[in-house]
Batch of 3 targets.
Target 1
Amino acid sequence: MKLYLFPPSGRVLGIVALKNHLALDCEVQPIDLGRGDQLSPQYLALNPNKKMPTLATRGKSASRQAKGAKADDEHAG
């Protein structure tokens, strides 16, 4: 697994805390928004929405925003 994140982001704190609590073997890849890393072809292939954080595993990826939107839709329905 590889976790792409923007370290100073408040959204990342809970995710990193959970990763550490569960002792997950997960490579952390910092993304520099100021440098535009989220616009690179490699990152866009993982997450075309350019959102963070993104978890990539076995060639698939998921972002927190995508999962949250799905959960919101399920609760609204």
Target 2
Amino acid sequence: MKVATVAENGIAFEAGHIEDIRLASTKMTGADRRAFQAQMALKYCGGNPRRAEDVFGWGRQAVQVGLHEKRSGIVCLGHHRFCCGAKLWEEKHPEVARALWEIAQSHSQQDPTFRTTLSFTRLTAEQAIKQLRGQGFAEDVLPSRSCMSEVLNRNGYRLRPVLKAKPQKKSQKPTPSSPISNNMSALAKAKPSCA
């Protein structure tokens, strides 16, 4: 097996160990990855980002940022996290969302089998929008019908009709294999016909 060494610290790695550390690093993202890379750089590379780049193949800027985060205790968040991506409708309009949850809660019931924690509701997206309009919310804060159904589904309200309990039949139809049916066929054979 191939052995790689880090000369200054005198630490010897097998090639598999380096691959395992690289793999572990690829499974993480953002601040978690940088913290892991900084920890490994401190442990095996003497805190040197260039050496960590040579040994593990990581970008030295990411390792350097991770070392600074570890030293200062302040985690750097990217500009992307704050400025990019559409916010959820519930986050944009929390007061309308609270009114929607009250409406949905009043129309929902528990799963009859109690297998899930989801609430099933008879409320459709169109009805929810109509009721929110009736409460006086403006059109520009109300979502479209498809968006409303996504909002309700995302928050645990399944949009499917709830079936009422069906009454059981009072009597069963006799089948050819049932004992009552066998007796009836024997009686029918024994009775003379009127023809």
Target 3
Amino acid sequence: MEKHRRDISLITKKISVLNQLRTGYIFNLVHGKPMVHGSSHDVFRRCGKKNCRCAEGKLHGPFPALSVNKNGKKKIVMIKKSDGPLILKESKRYRYFQNTLSKIRRINKEIDLLLSEVKIKTIRDYP
């Protein structure tokens, strides 16, 4: 019985640490700053003119773009020069949001496993 109490005490401490970490992540996400859905990257293009350098493989670019999934299809959206810095910043914010959300979900799974352990250690049969 004493061993179970020590085990549960350790599990409680682990859950407490995970909960603090999760709370910190959550408060990092609820900043309310705008985000743009999509991953930013550079695109290189051909112009289609026969005598252009791009016809021989030296493409034009780089041009900033967003890769976005819409209705299950991947779409490349070109970013206007004037919007570039803002859109790239908001795209990074979105990526950070998604990565942090993934960390929160992993912590939730870990807490769930720990609570299952508590259940196993504390449940008893009644005749």
